[in-house]
Amino acid sequence: MAEALGMGDSPTMWFPGVVAQYSLFRALHEKEIRIKGSLTTFQFFLIATTSSFAYYIIPNYLFPSISALSFICWIWRDSITAQIIGSGRKGLGIGSFSLDWTAIVSFLGNPLAMPVFTLVNMMAGFILIVYIITPIAYWTNAYNAKRFPIFSLNVYDEDGNIYNVSRIINENKFEFDQTAYDNYSKIYLSSYNVYYHAFEFAGVAATIIHVAMYHGRDSSSLLEYSIGMWTCFDMYTPCVCDGSNYKSVKNICEPDKLPKGSPWSCPLERQSFMGNVIWGLVGPSNVFFPSGQYSKLFISFIIGALAPVPMWLLARRFPDKQWIKLINIPLILAGATGMPPATTLAGPSGDHASTPSPKGMPI
């Protein structure tokens, strides 16, 4: 199929999502002779589509609750610790999963279109940041972690309140006011968000070094990979949304004004707002290096640059061990970059969890 698409073996031309679309268009347009006792590709497509439609009625209309399940939260409804561990919306999502395919693929894409080694690498990165680094950081109170939610898209002030951006904007010139910022509070992030940025920094360096070592002889490959890498890290670019798609749900992007228990949210816009505040309004110099409280995260660039080297050396030392080449450090680091806007439930199965929240729960 790759040859039919003209992709060949070039590492810059493998786009799994395109291959899936190619298969779909073949099923819709190619004439195929049906072999007795078997199905044509188009017949299989019709059966799969009909079955999917029939199944979607269950999680979308009959039993919406199975779109996201969190047994830990159900069993210990009034335990804050249980909510932190089990909530797929605002916690670690341990034991949470989804039976709704639309929820599974809503943010992170279709896993069926991705190579297995890609999924394994990204899942390893997800486990590393969500199940190991984030809980250790939270329960050791790194960066005053317990003052803030463990997983959140918001930025906070030093008292744990959602950051009041209007207090650091000059009303006359509508620009950042450094004096007001110094008098109000530095920007603080949730535990996960801190190390999300660390993984992003490491991913930038790891991608460049990985491409240089594995594909350095192909200058066009290096350029295309670098451009693709910078495109993926869209957290550094502003996004303007007019909200036209959200007019049907009033206050959808203002959780405090929504009815209690409302499942609606706008995570993409919240992520864009967070990125614009950090990288645009306040600026990385106030949040990260040199004067920010998260300046130590810049060591992630060094870690990311060094991380691909051992795998490259092992691949050269043992060329017959093909599985070593499948360990891809940039992909491992990318395992965390889909969240936000996705939540921790996206790793095991989906993107959100409808879990109960006890009164007074900080997440």
Automatic annotation (TrEMBL):
<comment type="similarity">
    <text>Belongs to the oligopeptide OPT transporter (TC 2.A.67.1) family.</text>
</comment>
<dbReference type="GO" id="GO:0016020">
    <property type="term" value="C:membrane"/>
</dbReference>
<feature type="transmembrane region" description="Helical">
    <location>
        <begin position="116"/>
        <end position="139"/>
    </location>
</feature>
<feature type="transmembrane region" description="Helical">
    <location>
        <begin position="297"/>
        <end position="315"/>
    </location>
</feature>
<keyword id="KW-0472">Membrane</keyword>
<keyword id="KW-1133">Transmembrane helix</keyword>
<dbReference type="GO" id="GO:0015031">
    <property type="term" value="P:protein transport"/>
</dbReference>
<keyword id="KW-0812">Transmembrane</keyword>
<keyword id="KW-0571">Peptide transport</keyword>
<dbReference type="InterPro" id="IPR004813">
    <property type="entry name" value="OPT"/>
</dbReference>
<dbReference type="InterPro" id="IPR004648">
    <property type="entry name" value="Oligpept_transpt"/>
</dbReference>
<keyword id="KW-0653">Protein transport</keyword>
<feature type="region of interest" description="Disordered">
    <location>
        <begin position="343"/>
        <end position="363"/>
    </location>
</feature>
<protein>
    <submittedName>
        <fullName>Oligopeptide transporter 5</fullName>
    </submittedName>
</protein>
<dbReference type="Pfam" id="PF03169">
    <property type="entry name" value="OPT"/>
</dbReference>
<feature type="transmembrane region" description="Helical">
    <location>
        <begin position="194"/>
        <end position="214"/>
    </location>
</feature>
<keyword id="KW-0813">Transport</keyword>
<dbReference type="GO" id="GO:0035673">
    <property type="term" value="F:oligopeptide transmembrane transporter activity"/>
</dbReference>
